[in-house]
Amino acid sequence: MIESGVTKAATVARIIPRVNAWGVTGTPVKDSVEDLRGLLLFLRHHTDSFRELFGQISMRHTKRLVRNEITIPPQKRYVITMPFTAVEEQHYQTLFEQMAESCGLNTLGEPLSEDWDPEDPAVLEAMRTALDRLRQTALHPEVGHRNRRALGHRNGPMRTVAEVLEAMIEQSEISMRSDQRAFLSIRLTRGQLLENSPRVKEALAIWEEVLESSNSIVSECRDQLKLELEQAQPAKSSNAQAQEDEDEDDLDEAMAGRVGDARRRLRSALEIQHKAVFFIASAHYQIKVNEDWTKPDSEEFQKLEKLEVDGYNLAKKLRKEILKESHRKAARSMQDIADSALGQTFVVIPEFKSLPESGIESRSIIEELQDLGEALNDQANQLDDWREHLVQLLLKPLVDEEDQDKEITGEEFEESTKLQEELVVYVQAVRTTIADRQDALSGQVNELVRHETIVSVRQAKDGLGPFPEKLLELLQTLATTLEQEMDRFTTAMNARVEYYRQLQAVSDMLESYSGPKTDVAMNALIADEEQLRKKLGQAESKHRYLIHLKEADSKADEQRMCVICQSTFTVGVLTVCGHQFCKDCIMLWFKAHHTCPVCKRRLQASNLHDITLKPQELRVHTEMAGPTSAQDAHRSPGSKKSTIYSEFSSEKLEEIKNIDLDGPAFTTKIDNLVRHLLWLRESDPGSKSIIFSQYHDFLNVLAMAFGRYRIGFTSFDKPNGPTRFKEDPGIECFLLHARAHASGLNLVNASHVFLCEPLVNTALELQAIARVHRIGQEQETTVWLYIVDGTVEESIYNLSVQRRMEHMGRTQNEKSKQSTPELLDVNLEAANSIELEHASLSKLMSKGKTAGEAVDKGDLWDCLFGHVVRSRSVDEDRLRNDPTVRGFLAAEAAEERRKNQPLHLVHGL
Question: N or C, which end of the chain is more exposed by having fewer CB within 10 Å?
Answer without folding.
Answer: C
